[in-house]
Amino acid sequence: MVTAKPQIAIKLVSKPYSTRAALGPLMVGVGVGWVFVVLWLCTGIFALLNNVYWGLTLLASTSGFSLILGLMTHSMVRDAYRSFVFELTDSDAVLYVHDRLKKRTSTQMVLLDDVKYVEYYPYRDSSSMILHTAYAQMEVPLWPMGEQVRDIMDFLDGRGLRIVNVQFDDVIPD
User: Fold this and answer.
1) DSSP assignment of 89-114
2) Which among 9, 54, 94, 96 is least surrounded, fewest beta carbons within 10 Å?
3) What is the pTM of this model?
């Protein structure tokens, strides 16, 4: 007996990171932030020589800001080295994540019959959806996928899945 492999209904491949919406202003903002970190470190060191308490306060606040900025920079670099492939069939959803920085690929799959609801975040620069099942929560980044995101949402809606749009304050089911 031969079983038929399910046909892929929709397959989306992420676009290069350089096409991300608002990437230019984000990089300029992070760059300006690092310039200010250097300036405030110099100011804090100078203040430390004249007033210990004021200098320590400046150095501590600058360290806190540089930690947050460092995490943001790390996140940008990590995203730049990742590519995604999202496949939908009549029965399942599969997400492949290829991380060129760590040189590894991961795969996550959920059965569409097991999906309780889909949490959809439509914001242009960080669009994503989360498929909720009893055994997993698959987060699918949609921001690198381009204009075909609407096809995914229409496909899932056509399958009868409840889509919770957080932008419209839809109620998240229990």
Assistant:
1) ESSEEEEEEEETTTTEEEEEEEEGGG
2) 54
3) 0.76
Residue 12 lies in a domain: no
What is the count of structural domains for the chain?
2
Q: Residue 128 belongs to what domain range?
A: 83-168
φ, ψ at 170 (rounded to 5°): -65, 150
Torsion of CA 46, 48, 51, 54, to 10 degrees: 100
In terms of domains, do 161 and 100 share one? yes
Tens of each residue's pLDDT in the chain, 174 residues: 556 666 768 888 888 888 877 788 999 999 999 999 999 999 999 999 999 999 999 999 999 999 999 999 999 999 899 999 999 988 899 999 999 999 999 999 999 999 999 999 888 777 899 999 999 999 999 888 877 888 888 888 888 888 988 877 767 776
d(CA 146, CA 105): 22
**Amino acid at position 153, single letter:** M
In degrees, to the nearest 5, what angle opens at C-alpha 11 toward C-alphas 106 and 20? Answer: 75
Q: In what order do the strands lie in the sheet with 104-111?
A: 8-13, 82-89, 92-99, 104-111
Helix (H, G, I), strand (E, B) or coil at 128: strand
Residue 113's CATH number: 2.30.29.30
